[in-house]
Amino acid sequence: MAELLEGRTAIVTGASRGIGRCIARTLAGEGMNVVLAARTEEDLEEVKQTIEAESPPSGEVPRALAVPTDVTREESVKNLVSQVKEVYDGLDVVVNNAGVATKKPLAETTTEEWNRTMAVNARGPFLMCRECLPLLRASDRPFIINVASVVAIKAYYNQGAYTASKHALRGMTRVLAQEYEEEGIRVHEISPGGVATEMVLQTRPDLDESVLMQPQDIADIAVFLLTREGNAIMDEVRVRRAASDPWF
After folding, report:
1. Are 2 and 23 spatial neighbours (Cβ–Cβ below 8 Å)?
2. Which of 32, 141, 214, 235 sits at a 20 to 30 Å CA gap from 243?
């Protein structure tokens, strides 16, 4: 089904590492143009160079575009969307993947830590969706994929701020799916359990890295969602590591 993605354009936030980096490389490998968004320009450029080496462009537009972006800042998000419009003159997919985690009891969580976690994990996707909607409406196959977490469904000890932010993202995703269904914008949520990323290893050092899922597992699910046709829609995909309890 790669022909469904060939030549289309996607924004991936948090694209400099972990799940976002893997999703960006995978989409580029499927023929998509990928806009890489994260805060650190040097890391983005490294990902861009990797993608260009693996998946050279087939036309005049670049296969990858690195746009340093702070998703918590409205002006930064607007600049990102403006560059997408200027370079690609359209947008088909938004993957909201950027995230931060705070591991503390709620009583010890500072207001600054709470605000930062909510800003990145909930406010950021809100700004991205709102600013990207005009471009998505012009696409004939528009998608939004929000990468949430198992904590969007469960609650984890010492992860109160993170859990609250992902619950907020899940709620927003459900409303977006309803508000834009008639316009043909498919809105999906992927809620993974433990994935072998730097953030997970820092937050859950008790987990055995050998039993964690890999970022590629999540990237493959994203491609599956983007290439599905027909009347069967998966609003939410919950995915767990095989060593965890079923039906989280």
Report:
1. no
2. 235
The model scores a pTM over 0.85: yes
Q: Which residues of 113-150 are buried (b: 16+ CB within 10 A; e: fewer)?
A: ebebbbbbbbbbbbbbbebbbebbeebebbbbbbbbbb
Q: Reduced to 3 states, what is the DSSP secondary structure of residue 163?
A: helix
Token output for 19 = 């799940």
Residues 6+ apart with CB under 8 A from 145: 93, 94, 95, 96, 188, 189, 190, 222, 225, 226
Which residue is catalytic, options 88, 157, 162, 180?
162
Q: How many domains does the chain have?
A: 1
Amino acid at the residue 180:
Y
The domain containing residue 187 runs over which residues? 9-234
Please tell me whether residue 34 adopts helix, strand or coil conformation: strand
| Catalytic annotation present for 162 | yes
CATH no. for residue 152? 3.40.50.720
Averaged pLDDT, groups of 10, the chain, 248 residues long: 88 97 97 97 96 91 97 98 97 97 94 98 98 98 97 92 97 97 97 87 79 93 94 93 83
Residue 168 confidence (pLDDT): 98
Whether residue 112 is contained in a domain is answered as: yes
